[in-house]
Amino acid sequence: MAQFKKTDSKIYSKTATVLSADTIYWKKLGVPTLVKEFGAIDYIDFSPVEPYLFAVTASVRVQIYNPITKLVVKNITKFQEGAHGGSFRKDGNLLVAGDELGKVRLFDVTTRTILRFFEGHKAPVHRTFFTADGHHVASFSDDRTVGYWDIATENHLLSFTGHEDYIRAGCTSPISPNIILSGGYDRKIRMYDTRAKDCVMTVDHGQPVESLLFLPSGGIFISAGGTSVNLYDALAGGRQLAQLSQHHKTVTCLQLASDGKRLFSGSLDRHVKVYDIATYQ
């Protein structure tokens, strides 16, 4: 029988873990809390003011949760059909949401009272946002139009057209009350100026646009559609700055964190990716 000599395996010391600011941040996070909703969740928005309540739009209601207790503090059920895109004003006192019937409702967060009822869209309204001054509302609908409403008078001021398919994404500029951005399933991103009452810029994302947002400076906007996340310079006529392609399926949502220094993207591939805004890594 052949004789075998045992091989001495070398034992290497483990490499030291590099403690970056991100590593420390993630270690501080607690155990995830599971909250059960009544139906498919359409949109989640955080109030910009303490205690940073968050509104979850699902089924025919918008439920407002306390982030500390994880309990529902307000339940808005004034919708006949599915609710969409409930979002807070920057003072946290008002909330606006669209629905399957093409209506846009404005609520007082404290009393849950309907303060304004905007009618005019002919198809479901999937996203609604306040303008930077908090005096107007922009709504984005499947009827291929973007509505612009005055809160004080409840009047429909403008209706922007140009998209050739459903508008499922939109946002308003964080610094200018006149700039509105819309993204459609026609793959186009269109920027509107309420002073010019027209589209002032058009960008082709390349895939149906699912989500849009501005960076806090208002000079750069980000779009999600297909498997890519694109960054554009609004001040340079929509010049593309970067393309992030880390997902394997359609990217459906975007959100900023850490005072605008981190970008989150969520996808149908069941992953959430975190990017550094400074380096796009």
Automatic annotation (TrEMBL):
Highest taxon of source: Eukaryota
InterPro entries in the cross-refs: WD40/YVTN_repeat-like_dom_sf, WD40_repeat_dom_sf, WD40_rpt
Source organism (scientific name): Anopheles maculatus
Protein name as catalogued: WD_REPEATS_REGION domain-containing protein
Pfam families found in the cross-reference section: WD40 (PF00400)
Keywords associated with the record: Nucleus, Repeat, WD repeat
PROSITE patterns found in the cross-reference section: WD_REPEATS_2, WD_REPEATS_REGION
Family matches, as Gene3D superfamilies: YVTN repeat-like/Quinoprotein amine dehydrogenase
Any single Gene Ontology cellular-component annotation: nucleolus
Localization (cell): Nucleus, Nucleolus
GO annotation (BP), single: positive regulation of transcription by RNA polymerase I
WD repeat segments: 118-159, 160-202, 244-281
Primary subcellular site in the record, as a coarse category: nucleus
Transmembrane segments: none
